Please model this.
Amino acid sequence: MVAMDSAARTFHNLIAGEWREPLSGEYLENRNPARRGELIGLFPRSNAEDVELAVAAAAEAYRRWRATPAPRRAELLFRAGQILIENKQSYARDMTREMGKVLLETGGDVQEAIDMLFFMAGEGRRLYGATTPSELPNKACLTARVPLGVAGLITPWNFPMAIPSWKIVPALICGNTVVLKPAEDTPLSAVNFVNALIEAGVPNGVVNLVMGTGPECGAPLAAHPGTRIISFTGSTEVGRQVGQQAARLFKHCNLELGGKNAIIVLDDADLELAVDGALWGAFGTSGQRCTAASRLIVQKGIHGKFVERLTERAARLKVGDGLDPNTQVGPLINQEQLETVERYVEIGRGEGAKLRLGGARMEEGELAQGYFFAPTIFTDCAPEMRIAQEEIFGPVVSVLACEDLESALEIANGVSYGLSASIYTRDVNAAMRAARDLETGIVYINAPTIGAEVHLPFGGTKNTGNGHRESGLATLDVYSEWKTIYVDYSGALQRAQID
Ligand code: NAD
Model:
């Protein structure tokens, strides 16, 4: 028998406006990664049959939803934003309990969903197309965004409400209906978000939620011929499979994948500011962000002082349960992630990097109940080392020394990913050259690699994705396509390129 927390209960899928049991009758446990004994709830272990029902419900609702005027759709999204504001604290607590990051950060995660709802609610009265002159007299030319149909959305656990909102909200404003498959580690935050949309009045079938594992529930959603757009955020490995499946059916496909982000610190940088940024970038969310700073490329003149200060400050970070307001670094998400991080520490040691701090699981006292790992710093790293090339997704940072801006940029760009990068310098020329030459989708000057805002495009180059952007107005291109409309009011046959 499983020990149930007093608040623990059994949750269901949302299909056509009804909370339904999974057809398998099976459920997955959702446990607190800071206290493994605490069961948060039982969530559906759905399969292809549940996906089938959800896609059918979304297809049925699509006809009415696409015909609903966008400003009316927007009003519902605005109302959902207000509901999120009212529930922000409790949603943040639920999120910390199910995935570990500290309350301050889970509050930020909910806030990002609020921001996205308000931003896209405004878009309901814009969704601008173009009008342009025709080459012929008495003829009008215009373009309009049109929805695609049913959107299949697959999301990871590290931003359990923000990332679903980045997908659901623009999909809805454009007139699509959706089926969300959230990560199996964070279904409660998805339930909370979807509940807010329902409470706001989003009609039955417009938003559907099926929960379960990637292979059993995510894969059938990606492969379903009824989903005309697949938007996936997660690992590069799974993203490749999802992209290949989508390509076979000529579906629109938006992939937001891994990162190996670098902060460059030049000799003239404000040392304390750079250390602040490195700490937040590397150890915020325990390093489990796609934009986490996992490489610090530091110029030789400041390298010694920087490493000393960084190590001193990182050693003082308070690791613990994210619900404790004093905690700065929470647990890792699960056993598998803990083992991955342990494996990379061994790889780093074997490659000859110098372990300056951490490097081990933390098991003293209450920490033994969760997946805690000490903030870890490797120095003397070479660019080709695996710890400087591969995404670790944990509180492990590799410091690399560099001669000058040129060599820093070469190291920063010398990885297969291209999500985010940053530079600390007081030299505007160096900053502008870095902004131009860093091969990433996002660049920060004198700020760490994390900190995206919803009204700007988010995404990366190379193996970080397939060229789309989430967030900002750019995301509208993912969830709509253009219709070109010609209106000939001449009353005669006019032939383009001929008359
Ligand atoms: P993951 O790829 O293991 O899982 C992501 C989602 O895909 C989950 O919902 C999972 O159940 C599902 N899934 C797994 N196998 C599947 C399959 N065969 N078919 C369809 N769906 C499947 O990733 P994760 O561990 O949850 O998240 C961490 C990864 O996400 C990291 O690589 C991180 O960099 C990346 N990430 C990227 C961004 C971004 O915007 N670029 C943002 C956050 C996280």
In short: The chain has a mean pLDDT of 97. Residues 274 and 424 are 6 Å apart (CA to CA). The first strand starts at residue 9 and ends at 10.
